[in-house]
Design a protein that fits this description.
Elements (H helix, E strand, L loop, with lengths): L31 H17 L8 H7 L4 H4 L1 H24 L1 H21 L3 H16 L1 H12 L5 H29 L4 H4 L1 H15 L4 H12 L6 H20 L9 H23 L13 H31 L4 H25 L5 H18 L9 H26 L8 H39 L7 H14 L8 H31 L20
Length: 540
Amino acid sequence: MATDTAEVTAPAGGSHQPAGATEPQWRPRFNPWLIALTVTLASFMEVLDTSIANVALPHIAGGMSASEDEATWVLTSYLVSNAIILPLSGWFSLLLGRKRFYMTCVAVFTISSFLCGIAPTLGLLVLFRILQGIGGGGLQPSEQAILADTFLPRQRGMAFAIYGVAVVTAPAIGPTLGGWITDNFTWRWIFFINIPVGIVSLILTTFMLEDPPYFVKERLERLKTKLRVDYWGIIFVALGLGFLQIVLDKGERDDWFASNFIRTCGFIAAVGLVLAVYWELTRKDPVVDLSLLKDRNFGISAFLMFMVGVILLGSTVLIPQYLQLVMGYSATQAGLAISPGGLLVMLMLPFVGLMLSKVEARWMIGIGLAITAAALIHMTSFDVYMDFKYAALARCFQAAGLAFLFVPINTAAYAFVPPTKNNAASGLINLARNVGGSLGISIVTTILDRRAQFHQARLTEHATLLNPYFNSAVSSATRVFGRGNAGNSPYALLMHTLQQQASVLAYIDCFWLLGLTFAALLPLIFLMRKTKPGRAAAAH
């Protein structure tokens, strides 16, 4: 893999030059930091679109004369097309050229955002969201590959920190921003705000981006040998990932495998994924290069990024829901409570990127895993009496751990990946995070529902006149509120309290599960290979 300018640079294709043959690493014509900000601009909006529409669903359903369940396809369609294109982005970059592919994605994302904003019917809105997901899905992997090539190895930590700001903070502020736009304007503006950003990104990309020489050479050589279109690979990947995303997004709402629809989608997803893995591992020119997972560092990093997705989006659902449904916060108040965590991540990521030039990535990952696990276990102390400050600080505690994970994991993932594989690697690792996020949301929503029922059943066992504590509570409520009527009788008030406590216990169960799972990942860092801080791994 390419190292610093004074080191031997492997040529395109990953083979080595003869001893003593050296050449300076390619450097872009423009300042690398300007390039980083340019490519991060569109990626931030793309990640934001995965969550900004959530709070607008009731408004979309009302405006389109549809049920709220039908309106959820606005979210599902975007996630499905996004998941399909992510692993294919490396192959399309090779086919079209990285700059051309990236600009095409920005253009498709921007145009489809405009079409979503003017969509007259729900069917057309879902169709345009599919197009938007296709355009957006190629942005993140392309950006990571561009950053990996644009920056010297010792600078990659800081470069990935800029990218991390977009990926980590966008899902956190999405619901709050979406709610504010919907309340003050109309839901259509959650799509229109992408248009000026997309136009600016296209203009800057046109002048600043260029494909590195090794990539151009590799692409031309592959095209000369008649790069075959892996049609079956594309079909199997699309079926497997597309239907898996539908299962994860719709499963809890349709009672999982009690639904014929979910069972059918699950079967198609399983068959598609199995066939995709077999087919791609046996092809000479696979559309998804699964052989990268054979590298120990990349495989472990991809799995850790998958788990970061689980925690990031899972907790982003848990904490605001807890504050709104249990504590009675408004959507804006809940958003303000988790916002300091996003701000802390933005401040810490450059610091973490700087530390990577001095500290080995795997030890940074270990610190991040330990802090995140401790933060999640700390959240098991949540109760109905905690104040705003306690919730905000708990989120900041968790955010501090996530800041130590995202950049070091990306840095470790690319340590032993040849430059010619950067596009394929970025597609796989972004896919891991996105699928992990979808799985995380499905897991926490299912556990919340099932454990709340369990705890309510257990607590109800003690709500009997044979229990002196229950009789005392009924007497106290009667003295304060009187006997009332069916709606506000002492029994109704106590039942409300019981349901609230059952919900609290269900949230605590989720925090325990996520915290202990993250703690169990710590031994994985000892399986990763050593890399010198601030330098690429030796080619091998």
